[in-house]
Amino acid sequence: MAKSSATKDAQALLHSLRSAYASTPTNLKIIDIYVLFAIFTALIQVGYMAIVGSFPFNSFLSGVLSCVGTAVLAVCLRIQVNKENKEFKDLPPERAYADFVLCNLVLHLVIMNFLG
Amino acid sequence: MGKVLGFLILAVCTLICEAAIFKPISDSHRSAALDLLTPKDGSYESLEVTYKALRSFEILGTGKQPDIKAVTCKSVVDTLRSPSSASKDLFQALRVNRILKCELNNEAFAGIASRLKDNVNSAGSLLDYYYSVGSLVLIEGQASEVDVHLGGADSVFRAIKALSQSDGRWRYSSNNPESSTFAAGIALESLAGVISLASSEIDRSLISLVKNDISKLLDGVEKYDDGAYYFDEKLVDAHGYQSPLSASSAVVRGITAFAIASDEDLNLPGDKILGLARFFLGVGIPGNAEDLFYQLDALASLENNRVSIPLILSLPTAVLSLTRKDQLKVNVNTVLGSAAPSLSVKLKQIFSSGSKDASIIDQDLKFDPENAVHFLDVLPENIDAGSYIFTFEIVLQNPEDKKIYATGGRTKVPIYVTGFVKVDHAEVAVHDSDLGNVETQKSLDLAGANTISLSANHLQKLRLSFQLTSPLGNAFKPHQAFLKLRHESKVEHIFVVGNSGKKFEIILDFLGLVEKFFYLSGRYDIQLTVGDAVMENSFFQHLGSIELDLPEPPEKAARPPPQAVDASSRFGPKAEISHIFRAPEKRPPKELSLTFLALVLLPFVGFLVGLLRLQVNLKNFPKASAPATFAILFHLGIAAVLSLYLLFWLKLNLFTTLKALGFLGIFLMFVGHRTLAYLASSSAKLKSA
């Protein structure tokens, strides 16, 4: 009994989360799946490393850090673009996007240098 | 002092360097030619090779020749009958036919001749002229009834002459700026052909222009230290590399052909003609058939030319023995070894190597008509054992011959005079430390066997002395005079025996040598070496032994070095060095890596699917032309930066990347600012509306 009620609670919680997330603006959802894409890519590379070993260690690091860095930058973009977030109310989303592009270009210059 | 010495050495070197013996073509050449030129399976691979082989045999005059007439004639006739043969093939076939004389009728020749005449008139390059004109000359020689005369010989002559360069070399064609020595040779040969084919006389001024070219060409000849002259070919192009041998051969053939055809006195310097002959003879016996052909063909041209026929002075042997009373013999021949006209040979000077001064002799050599040898009965009195440089001069007896033959002034020849060197007053003694007190003294007979046995301690001295007298009674200083002491344990010590005048003497003070001898007491074998190239009785003798009693070694004395077991381990190959490299890291299997490459791409596919699910669109993309252009440029700019990063990874270095990135960054900032500003303003409008 207790078990089924717990399942039900979990289902209700998930349902409420999903319905709450449905109201999120589309541009934020795009950023979300972009972040997920980056994180999964990083996870797959970590899995590869676990199987074959970390021999070209710099290559492994740059691959994973490229994904993690992209994800972090995308999260930052999401924070700045989110309209609910009053802290960045005066910052136009275009400015935030320009920052995102600039940071990505600098990050990847370093990544490429480190790739070997 | 040093300067004077340097000059002396230089002077001696130039004397020695310029002296060399060149021998005319002989029987050894003939047998070598037979080996080189014999075809592998009954015939040669092409008509060109066939001609070169047949021509070499023709010049050498060897009786034995491979029997290839049947096979070769078939290919010659096929080539000449075929209407599509190129002029080069016709030329080669006609050259072979000149020697083999295959059966061909005059109509065949007439047909080829008319075709070749068309070729001459339409020729564009030097090789076209060379093959066509050369073929016509060959037809003239093989079928005298066929009309081969060129109507417009003057214009053909001018066309070939137009390809010449200011330095006497030629170009292969008018659109090829590079000039070549080999081309000069074939151009001169073609011009000679044009002159002989001309139906009317060629303008003499044109011929004198070419004469001028020839003298300029000869100015550019290169010289070896031994007096040989040659032409170098600097041009390497589609016609292939021409060695100095083939280039010089072509020039010699061209010049001699031109001299014969133009009937003109070319005033060529005799020393250069002789130098060229020396170059060809200096090659010796070439290693391949082609070089042999070039050598023999050039020598044959020099042998039968109108310019000047070089005469080669050679010696059957350059080593004369005073003991055997050898006569100095000199042969004078033409380059191919045939007899020279009546002449006398004079021995002008004798340089003794090692000293600069020459003794001037000026002595006529006697002539032995039976063996065609000039000889000197007795060597000049002051000739002792040693190496010398003899200077000879050829004097032609008939003044008319001076115009025909090139003797090249004086010829220097290195000569070794060997003799029996008398060794006497040989003695060996052991002294006490002051030389006055002689302990033991024994005289030696260095001509026979000796077994002396001496004993000495470290306070005594060993003295060995002997005298060397050359055949003329002078002091003789050999290249080598060594004394060797050899301990039982095979430790060896070698000493140079010094001399003062005739007397050679060495004093070994054992007190000063104990350390060098590693304090090794015991029996030492004594060996004496006296040797020289001109000493007929050079020797290496075992004299006996000496029992040395040396003090005990102190604590820190050096140990004798370990002696090599035998010479082969001492001078043989060293053990091979094996290098150790770091083993490469283990790499994962290729399939696994490729699988993960596909897996890494999966989240990207998921990302695209997600975008589709969200029904993302590009409606916000600017529509107006100017902002749309900027937006496109913005994205292209980002793509450009990313491609730059890719190049950075693949091949660029950091500095070039940063330079390019600087320019791209400025561009990107500009278009990005325009695009985003436009988007911001349009969204602000949307809000206010």
Note the topology:
The complex is a heterodimer of chains A (116) and B (689).
Chain A: H1 2-22, H2 26-52, H3 57-81, H4 93-115
Chain B: H1 2-18, H2 27-37, H3 47-60, H4 69-81, H5 87-100, H6 106-122, H7 126-142, H8 153-161, E1 170-171, E2 179-180, H9 181-197, H10 204-219, E3 222-223, E4 229-230, H11 244-262, H12 270-282, H13 289-303, E5 309-314, E6 319-321, E7 328-334, E8 343-352, E9 358-364, E10 366-368, E11 373-376, E12 386-396, H14 401-404, E13 405-406, E14 410-418, E15 422-431, E16 438-443, E17 452-457, E18 461-469, E19 480-487, E20 492-496, E21 498-500, E22 503-509, H15 510-513, E23 522-531, E24 539-549, H16 567-571, H17 590-613, H18 625-650, H19 654-688
Parallel strand pairs in B: 5-13, 6-14, 17-24
Antiparallel strand pairs in B: 1-2, 3-4, 5-7, 7-11, 8-9, 8-12, 10-11, 12-14, 15-16, 15-18, 18-22, 19-20, 19-23, 21-22, 23-24
Helix pairs in contact in B: 2-3, 3-5, 3-13, 4-5, 5-7, 6-7, 7-9, 8-9, 9-11, 11-13, 12-13, 18-19
Family (chain B): Belongs to the SWP1 family.
Domain Ribophorin II third (chain B): 425-548
GO molecular function, one term (chain B): transferase activity
What's this entry about, in short?
With 116 residues, chain A is mostly helical. Helices cover 83% and strands 0% of the residues of chain A.
Task: Walk me through the structure.
The complex is a heterodimer of chains A (116) and B (689). Chain A has 116 residues and is mainly alpha-helical. Chain A has one domain (25-114). Helix content of chain A is 83%, strand content 0%. Chain A contains 4 helices and no strands. In chain A, helix 3 (57-81) runs antiparallel to helix 4. The mean pLDDT of chain A is 90. With 689 residues, chain B is of the alpha+beta class. Chain B has 5 domains: 27-103, no CATH class; 105-296, no CATH class; 312-418, Immunoglobulin-like; 422-559, Sandwich (Immunoglobulin-like), CATH 2.60.40.10; 616-682. Chain B contains 19 helices and 24 strands. In chain B, strands 10-11-7-5-13 form a 5-stranded mixed sheet. In chain B, helix 3 (47-60) runs parallel beside helix 5, helix 7 (126-142) packs across helix 9 and helix 8 packs antiparallel against helix 9. The longest helix of chain B has 35 residues, at 654-688. Chain B is flat, with a radius of gyration of 42 Å. Chain B starts with a helix and ends with a helix. Chains A and B meet through helix 2 and helix 4 of A and helix 17, helix 18 and helix 19 of B.
